[in-house]
């Protein structure tokens, strides 16, 4: 199936490629057979991403961290409601489902149309084709238990003002929820044109923060819980960066993290 995704929507094909490529190597960090299946059926020039080892490693590490933390939440709250904003072609639901959770995948209409070619909705797994800033999606969420919001590979494409607008809405409607978000530093966002895969699309990075603790500056109701630096995982896979990350300035200013907050 031919795809004509552009700009930010096109970037959903990057983690799909990365998970599929990771699944093919010896001793993979993650294995995603569904990603392999989808990539084979999508008519897109995935070859332009070949050799992008930093993206492949980064996506594999963030997948591992998020899978672990989502499972931890579900094990604690077996009737949880999971809201996955900017879901793209994510397959996490099928790896962590316990048979009880309710899961909502939210993205723009075109990515959701593409998802529907591979996945079918059930009474516990719903897909919503709306912009995350079309806040009518909130009315489509039927809460059944404690809430976990996932924002993977999406917030860096928004401005700081948009981030604030989104967080204020989440605070208003999902008070008490937990949130797992991917963040990059301002220096990485500023140098986005040098990114080994995003620079092959029309998308640009717009937002970054040095520490997850900075999320508390948005509103006093936001509480920082924890964060996990990608460079702390599978250090043998980071090649020459293994030496650079020994330098505190580099590790602090050139890293991606998964951040856990409560809202």
TrEMBL record:
GO terms (BP aspect): methylation
Keywords on record: Methyltransferase, Transferase
GO molecular function, one term: methyltransferase activity
PANTHER family for the chain: S-ADENOSYL-L-METHIONINE-DEPENDENT METHYLTRANSFERASE YKTD-RELATED, S-ADENOSYL-L-METHIONINE-DEPENDENT METHYLTRANSFERASES SUPERFAMILY PROTEIN
Name of the protein: Class I SAM-dependent methyltransferase
Source organism of this protein record: Vallitalea guaymasensis
């Amino acid at each position: 199936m031919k795809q004509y995704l552009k700009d930010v929507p096109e970037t959903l094909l990057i983690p799909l490629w990365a998970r599929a490529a990771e699944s093919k190597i010896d001793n993979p960090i993650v294995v995603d057979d569904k990603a392999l299946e989808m990539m084979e059926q999508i008519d897109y020039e995935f070859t332009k991403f070949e050799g992008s080892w930093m993206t492949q490693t980064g996506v594999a590490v963030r997948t591992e961290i998020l899978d672990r933390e989502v499972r931890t939440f579900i094990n604690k709250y077996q009737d949880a409601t999971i809201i996955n904003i900017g879901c793209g072609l994510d397959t996490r639901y099928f790896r962590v489902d316990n048979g009880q959770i309710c899961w909502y995948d939210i993205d723009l209409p075109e990515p959701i149309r593409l998802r529907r070619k591979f996945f079918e909705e059930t009474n516990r797994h719903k897909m919503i084709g709306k912009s995350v800033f079309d806040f009518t999606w909130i009315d489509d969420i039927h809460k059944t238990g404690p809430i976990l919001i996932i924002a993977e590979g999406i917030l860096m494409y928004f401005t700081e003002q948009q981030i604030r607008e989104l967080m204020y809405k989440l605070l208003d409607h999902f008070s008490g929820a937990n949130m797992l978000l991917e963040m990059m530093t301002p220096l990485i966002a500023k140098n986005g044109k040098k990114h080994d895969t995003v620079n092959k699309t029309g998308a640009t990075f717009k937002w970054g923060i040095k520490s997850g603790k900075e999320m508390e500056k948005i509103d006093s109701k936001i509480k920082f819980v924890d964060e996990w630096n990608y460079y702390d995982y599978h250090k043998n896979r980071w090649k020459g960066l293994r030496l650079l990350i020994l330098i505190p300035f580099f590790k602090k200013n050139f890293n991606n993290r998964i951040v856990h907050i409560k809202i």
